[in-house]
Design a protein that fits this description.
Helices cover about 35% and strands about 20% of the residues. This is Transposase IS200-like domain-containing protein.
């Protein structure tokens, strides 16, 4: 559940584009483990297939996730609660543990109509480069973008 301070003034809008950041519990570097990063990827696609979201770009950093998507329903908090819950169940099964996977709450930014979606997607995907984890996005395994191929990198955008 988000803290009251984080949710004050938050109004979900169906078909709006959101940039969301969610951190792992105690900032554990869970997504350095390929199987756990793959859970995130699978659950993002699951949300898309269910019609909850349309993913534009995402990157799983070692201890947090950036997700740029169009919300296809009218409740951002419910969408993210379902996503986090599904990820947590799958990750806990893989790790053979129980307990929280995610920090409560999330940071979100609803893009204005005049914000360039492709610029925002590039910003999301470039996080591993800015963090110094890699020098070229093609070296980082845990990301996706509807406009960027894994082989060409930013040459596509």
């Amino acid at each position: 559940m988000s803290s009251p301070r984080l949710t004050r003034g938050r109004h979900s809008r169906q078909n709006a584009v959101y940039a969301v950041t969610m951190a792992t519990h105690h900032r554990q570097p869970l997504f350095q483990t390929p199987a756990l990063a793959n859970v995130v990827h699978d659950q993002l696609h699951h949300c898309d297939r269910e019609g909850i979201s349309q993913t534009h770009a995402w990157v799983a950093m070692p201890d947090h996730l950036h997700w740029l998507f169009t919300l296809r329903e009218d409740d951002l908090s419910a969408c993210l609660r379902r996503f986090k819950s599904r990820c947590a169940r799958a990750m806990n099964t893989i790790r053979r543990v129980s307990g929280p996977v995610w920090q409560s709450g999330f940071y979100d930014h609803r893009l204005r109509d005049d914000e360039d979606l492709r610029v925002q997607a590039r910003y999301v995907v470039a996080n591993p480069v800015r963090a110094g984890l890699v020098t070229d996005i093609r070296e980082y395994p845990y990301w996706g973008c509807q406009w960027i191929s894994r082989h060409a990198g930013f040459d596509d955008l």
